[in-house]
Amino acid sequence: MRGGGRLxxxxxxxxxxxxxxxxxxxxxxxGLRTIGQGYQVRRYAADGSNELLSRRRxxxxxDLAVFDLAPARWRGDDGxxxxxxxxxxxxxxxxxxxxxxxxxxxxxEIRELKQSQLDIxxxxxxxxxxxxxxxxxxxxxxxxxxxxxxxxxxxxxTVRITRNFSVQGxxxxxxxxxxxxxxxxxxxxxxxxxxxxxxxxxxxxxxxxPLVGAAIAGGSDDGPLTARLAYRRVWSATADQLPGEPSxxxxxxxxxxxxxxxxxNRFYAAGGVRFNLLVAQFDDQQLMAKVRTAGxxxxxxxxxxxxxxxxxxxxxxxxxxxxxxxxxxxYEVGFGPEVKAYxxxxxxxxxxxxxxxxxxxxxxxxxGRGLVxxxxxxxxxxxxxxxxxxxxxxFAPLQTFExxxxxxxxQWRSDAWPDTAxxxxxxxxxxxxxxxxxxxxxxxxxxxxxxxxxxxTYYASQFRGIxxxxxxxxx
Amino acid sequence: xxxxxTTNMGGVRVGAPTLPLPNPPAMDRAxxxxxxxxxxxxxxxxIAIAIAAAAGxxxxxxxxxxxxxxxxxxxxxxxxxxAQHAKLGATCESCHQSALTSTSAGDNLxxxxxxxxxxxxxxxxxxAKAVPHGQGAARCDACxxxxxxxxxxxxxxxxxxxxxxxAKGPAGQSPSVLARSGLAAEPPRVELARPNLKFNxxxxxxxxxxxxxxxxxxxxxxxxxxxxxxxxxxxCLACHDGKRATARCSACHITEADGRLKTKLVSLATRxxxxxxxxxxxxxxxxxxxxxxxxxxxxxxxxxxxKYCLTCHKRTxxxxxxxxxxxxxxxxPSDYLSLHVIDARRNxxxxxxxxxxxxFCVGCHQxxxxxxxxxxxxxxxxxxxxxxxxxxxxxxxxxxxxxxASGAVxxxxxSTSHSLAAKRNLRTCVSCHREESCLxxxxxxxxxxxxxxxxxxxxxxxxxxxxxFLSARNQRACLKCHAPGSMELSCD
Lengths: 475, 492
Description:
Structural class of chain B: mainly alpha
Strand content of chain B: under 5%
Distance between the termini of chain B: 94 Å
Helix content of chain A: under 10%
Largest sheet of chain B: none
Shape of chain A: globular
Order of helices and strands of chain A: HEEEEEEEEEEEEEHEEEEEEEEE
Order of helices and strands of chain B: HHHHHHHHHHHHHHHHHH
Largest interface: A-B, 189 and 147 residues
Number of strands of chain A: 22
Shape of chain B: elongated
Number of helices of chain A: 2
Radius of gyration of chain A: 26 Å
Number of helices of chain B: 18
Distance between the termini of chain A: 36 Å
Radius of gyration of chain B: 38 Å
Strand content of chain A: over 45%
Number of strands of chain B: 0
Oligomer: heterodimer
Largest sheet of chain A: 22 strands, antiparallel, barrel
């Protein structure tokens, strides 16, 4: 471990001397994606009638990756590449059109309704398999495990103590929408920057939130049993502290255990349980068993329990006393490499009474340059009822050109009752069509166009158009 | 090495002509009618048998074969009996000597004609050369078969590659006439596509890995070894377990510049073989990672191990869906704006996997006139939506939700009260409301409203672990309803 630590330090030093290193082939990859969307959003006018707002969004992703920053001698015996690297993704999301008119502004502004947002989604210096033992990341990073999907600015290091045992530790500050160049998509839910009521302590949203976490993991990728135990704590100092108030508070504290097992290349199981130390509850429990029979047939059974919990600053951790349990079953089969089919059923039981359940089935057929897929679904219970189908097809007449189309139809009835049409609940029929194509315009340049039109109970036509231009280049 | 017998070396199994079957005898009306009646009578039985047959077909369907993305389609128009050669004492190295020095998976290890000449007295000037019984066949079409194509060298002159290339067909046709009539002037060629793998035969041989370990059935096959006989990943993993040999995916799989596995391997050859998608896990490694038709919707278990996912994916691919900018049509169908009313109430799929209720949901709901404006409205701006509890406003929720028909706040929960919906899925509530909505009635501050306790009956919250843990970790949440120093803040 001490050797691994020294090598990690060497990696950092090497990274800091990056500009001095001469360029080599494939040292940089730049990816640009421009997504233009135009669509309509139904809203309730002040008199209760329906109207369509036009929404125009332009989203620009800019990805930059720099590889092989480390000397070639750092590569392993089998030529492992990219021991030291830098990876970043920026996003500009700009929204305009009628949808943005009349939105709350000033102190009432809601993050998601800001006109233009420039976010650094992630940007970090990374090291992989340094000294055969250490992985690290330094900078803004995104992670996902049973603890949560979360982002933070800080450092993360994983050390493989033995082939089947590793230790991870990380520390930093949580990425929140109120920070500069920060997306709100991964912050804990429960408090709102748009709240103006002093009792909700809106100034608390401006505070930095330090976090620490650790994990231990055992087992190898292809071993019969693997497990990971992870812990994370996020806290913040009290804003505008008054006498009698605590100086700080915990925003999130969770302990999660996940495990996975495989037996004889036929039977698989995976599961996890998360203990939320804010509310003293196992708020997330999951267990899945999967069996493969002859050929490519899968039977999957899954159980889950989820109790909604929120940011530690939110009163909703008191209000959220309910939960739900899910049972799911899936059967999937492949008829050779071309045809696949599945059937899926689920049942959700609310602990506070109530039930929802349903199922879906579908099949796909891939042949040559084409793909056809059809799905149907029905579910009913708490929330409402829906019955629908979805059929899609893709065909590539040329290596550089692919056509796609989709037909969608469904009937739905919600059990919500907004008083807009004589007190009846919402529902109707929708029929949608999509058509588009993807072109490879040149090496690393792709264009994707898609048009969608929906006809339904609430409108005669609702149009949506998407254009995506992707440019990827290696230098 | 003993000379090979000519028996069955002509490739009878491969490309052998099929005999025409006699026409079935015609049935007259009298014979057909009972059958039709029978079918109608036993329709249920026929359906049952059909279902059973389909199930049987399903059980046997898709026996594991190598992915066409890893081993692209190939053409090996050769007749070769491995078992026969093995019986005669031929070893793998006898013919596949180049395998011992091969360092690339792209190397063609099929023996050249010279390797056959040791036993087969081939003469290119005599395509139909006859040899005495007991010697290895020397006719071209003893090995070079053509499947359905008509490759008939018996009357031909010489072959391509010889000093005298063929100019005439069996009946003296020119090559162009032969082509038009479907007769090939030359034997069909072996066409191999480079496998999308890294493999070093030499290294394995040097480490004492025998051929049979990976090509176990080759010496029992009565046909050439094809891509269907090549080893699959499970075979590799038997040794590549991280202990005896590296278990890193990139040890065998081709990688991108950034070290991720290259998954876009589509070519015309792979498409022709049915492989028109990216390289995806088959499930043979973890089971839960098989990218089946439902994987996009149900990958939460597989997604717990980000390092494993990042073997192939970039982080931006996660954000594409989980960042909520573009609606993925395979998850949310057309006009999902209408349909999401149902899914959000029951939280299927889990909205929080991609959306944050207090910004994404509230933002759109407020702009689209569903959510209440911040309490008291926004100064200088008229109420943006028709719903609320003020004069002239419509009700979003049904009568009895929070107030009775007279507009009075309901003190005792009823079956129609909002408390039941909140207990089922509070996330639905907070997709429109903020904390101040709840504080209006549930704050302990009597100046705000009726102060209905959200803690349940007296004694059901104080003293619980939930109370102690919440209070110990973040009392700021408590202070939103209770005054500092209040006795109510104690969990005892």
